[in-house]
């Protein structure tokens, strides 16, 4: 294929091999009441957060029986070590090749068991599926990546489907 020919697919053998295969797991530090309280304060600022997120005495009388974290709480927000990520997309100043234009197509979260003080969350990710079609920029592929969080008891806490767009 010459450089002027358009590819017939953006699906790679790497994608085919990775589809449905869970990657390595990441484990959080134990969630603390202080983590939850600070997250809730930041999230609801300047309003006072709901008491279920910071008042242990109040939380004992709820159906949860203890403080719980806001649904958007992220126990992986401040890792001590950050994994290096490979570069994505074209080299700055160069014309991108087909498939090197990359966009975040958004994500959809579904929540299950609440996170509580003492929970240790494990995250895993896999390429779920893709949809390839012609768009106004030519051949375009939508990739759907699934991430699951489980607590130390194996309960599903959150599922996220992230959409990536390449053209």
Give a description of the structure.
This protein has 167 residues and is an alpha+beta fold. The chain folds into two domains: 1-30 and 98-167, Roll (Thiol Ester Dehydrase, Chain A); 32-72, no CATH class. It is 14% helix and 30% strand. The chain contains three helices and five strands, in the order αβααββββ. Strand 4 (138-150) and strand 5 (156-166) form a beta hairpin. The two termini are 18 Å apart. The mean pLDDT is 90.
Q: Topology, pairings included?
A:
Blueprint: H1 13-18, E1 26-27, H2 33-44, H3 56-60, E2 102-111, E3 122-135, E4 138-150, E5 156-166
Antiparallel strand pairs: 1-3, 2-5, 3-4, 4-5
Structural descriptors:
Thiol Ester Dehydrase, Chain A; 3 helices; alpha+beta; 167 residues; five-stranded antiparallel beta sheet
In DSSP terms (H or I, runs of 4 or more residues), the helix count works out at 3
Instruction: Report the strand count.
Output: 5
Helix and strand succession?
HEHHEEEE
CATH superfamily grouping of the largest domain? Hotdog Thioesterase
Question: Which structural class best describes the helix and strand composition?
Answer: alpha+beta
Distance between the termini: 18 Å
CATH class (first level) name of the largest domain: Alpha Beta
- Total count of domains: 2
Share of helical residues:
10-25%
Quick rundown:
With 167 residues, the protein is an alpha+beta fold.
């Amino acid at each position: 294929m010459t450089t002027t020919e358009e590819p017939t697919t953006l699906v790679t053998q790497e994608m085919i091999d990775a589809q449905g295969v869970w990657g390595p797991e990441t484990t959080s530090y134990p969630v603390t009441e202080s983590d939850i309280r600070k997250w809730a304060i930041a999230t609801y600022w300047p309003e006072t957060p709901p008491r279920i997120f910071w008042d242990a005495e109040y939380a004992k009388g709820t159906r949860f029986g203890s403080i719980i974290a806001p649904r958007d709480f992220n126990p992986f927000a401040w890792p001590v070590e950050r994994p290096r990520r490979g570069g994505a997309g074209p080299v700055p100043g160069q014309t991108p090749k087909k498939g090197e234009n990359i966009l975040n197509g958004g994500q959809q979260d579904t929540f299950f068991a609440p996170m509580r003080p003492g929970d240790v969350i494990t995250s895993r990710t896999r390429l779920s599926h893709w949809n390839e079609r012609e768009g106004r920029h030519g051949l375009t592929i939508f990739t759907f990546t699934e991430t699951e969080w489980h607590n130390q008891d194996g309960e599903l806490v959150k599922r996220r489907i992230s959409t990536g767009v390449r053209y």
